[in-house]
Amino acid sequence: MIRSLRTAASGMSAQQMNVDNIANNLANVNTTGFKKSKVEFQDIMYQSLRKPGVTASTGAVTPTSLDIGYGTRPVATTRQFSVGELSQTGNPLDLAIDGDGFYQIQKPDGTTAYTRDGSLKLTADGRIATSDGFYLTPDITIPEDAISIAIGFDGRVSVNQAGSNDPQEVGQIELARFINPAGLSAIGHNLFEETPASGAPITGVASEDGFGKINQGYLEMSNVDVVSEMVNMIVAQRAYEINSKAIQTADDMSSLVNNLKR
Question: What is the pTM of this model?
Fold first, then answer.
């Protein structure tokens, strides 16, 4: 009886984490560039009461084993980096990557983080930065007398300046990609950090060598599918209820044993 109580409890704990993850996905349904994640589970070790292939007292060889499992446990949250829907904003510094790649962002400590959030801004000195004031890298500065900004599919940044009819190129946006983006570590603020699991960043120009193209005046929305997440939540809730029923059944059986009289 004790085994069944602990086994069902592990199932309830796992489904609670599953619901927590679904809630985080739904909470970020309107977060620019957000990537949904999915909890993965594994079964726990087994108690083997009889091994397969053992010779029984009758001389026959047992074709199967007799194993009792000890439940389940969450082992990973896998982030899915499918491209979200592109939403047109008309803002010249709203940039969406259609395809593979991340913007490179310099954090205050000087290290580099990575993001799919292209809602960029201009600082007081004309540098391009995120909403939190973290600078885009390589650094790009827009001249004070710029009257318009144009960013091509390849990330080339050009401006039209007062008194000049010819566009002036002021920088090039470089993208980074990873052999295993699911291995990146999410640190909040729509940022990811490189880890040994993600591999080293591969940098390059948009629209070339497998990188996606940059769309000016668009933002990439979250890739969370609300309907799918609601279905997943219902499934997780039902699994939680079933495990609670197993605990209740095991408790009832224990109660019957305790109430046996000679």
Answer: 0.86
